[in-house]
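Job type: complex structure
Entries:
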Amino acid sequence: MAIELHNITKVYRSRRAGKKTVLNDVNAVFERGHSYGILGINGAGKSTLLRIICGAERPTFGDVRKDVSISWRLGFVSSFNSSLTGMENLRFVCRIYDADIKEISDFVEDFAEIGNAIHEPLRTYSSGMKSRLAFGLSMAIRFQVYVIDESLAAGDYRFQEKCRAEFERRREESDILMTSHMPNAIRNFCDRGGVVHKGQLKLFDSVEEATDYYEEVTA
Amino acid sequence: MVDPLPSRDVDRAPFSAAWFSELSRSLAVMGRVIHAIMIREARTRYGSSKIGYTWAIIDPLVTTAIFVAIFSLLGRSSPIPGPIVVFFVSGIIPLFFWRGAVGQAASAVSASLGLLTYPQVMPADVVIGRLLLEAATTVIVFVLFLIGLNILLGISPTWFFGDPPRLLLATLGLLYFTLGCCFLSSSLARILPVWQNIWSYMSRPIWILSGIFFTLEQLPSGFRQYMAYNPVAHMVEWLRSAMIPTFDSSVYSILFPMTFATIALIIGLIIDRMLLLTGDEEIVS
């Protein structure tokens, strides 16, 4: 077992728009040793699903059982405080994950390539620098599952290649769970696929099957 | 490799070995999260300032000093035997701590939505972290006052340690009282954002009515009857009785503020739990 979703339902309530059911009674098992790419059109509920899986948000009903460590969404920067320096934000994350500050900061300085800016307040960063810092930090902490939300994917081509190479190196110990609305993007990282459509999640044993189903339901 | 977070295991029975190991792992996680939040809050409270946490000390120090100076210079005589400054400081410092902590708790969750996306960071951690930071700041401010009063006015610190065991108890009582109020304040702010404004209007009259300028004991009994509904006034009277050697009030209740705190704590925790279970709170994506 790695991650099990049991009867996950997520309803958003808004004063203006009323209730909106984003996920409706989702059951699924993500097995250890496989990387999953979740396809779905914009607004299908991919990001909600990821937030629920990595614990950023709670489902309205149902529960998530997991016996693996799961990263926060890669490149997520909203948890950073803009008046703290990059290093201070890094230390905070190290403290809550009980990670070695020296080891992590060495890795991030090397990986994020933001140089001395790491000692400057975050409000002086460009958005690219911020997300490189966030990426480096999530890569530095060794999780068993890394969660990537395509909408947060950042950095130039070279940086993305670097991330890919790093994931390749981690294949043995870490899996990936990512979302995208483009099948091509997940083929690079994943060996299994899934589709979120009309509040339902369907998992497949290969990215091809998932792609076929995705094209079928969205066509 | 990071360990998985303790998860709610459906199979474990309460008070079994597995239950205790899960509890201790959860408490360890909570401890390090609160520690991290305290450090972060200390740095960000005065975000744009270069000296950061130093401001967190200077700010209440100056405010308290100004209040104490004004009231002392107004020339009123102390309602109890001893220097008037002792009387004011013993009331203002606990009151400012309580007021500051409850105000901090009101904005705790809305200011930390980004942090709450880390699964191990819970709203309660932010509330407790802010409370402990406020407590640490108060202790530092108090010690600085003791030193300052001793040097400037020759007032011996023993004026504030009349009955040490009782003072310890009263301090723990104040911590518990503030904890209860903080949880209620934080939860109210989460369901009623306007609570933060209400609190800023409420907090001023409350501290005027909480016994900085008078003791409950000296009030005429008809008036005291109404004042006695304010649990904060009881806390101030209790602490003052424990601190000042020449003062021992007979009209305050310990049971009342403690009951108030317990009810506030329970309501606060219930609201917190309800918001967590429904997952209905605003999140940062």
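Summary: Chain B has a mean pLDDT of 86. The longest helix of chain B spans residues 123-153.
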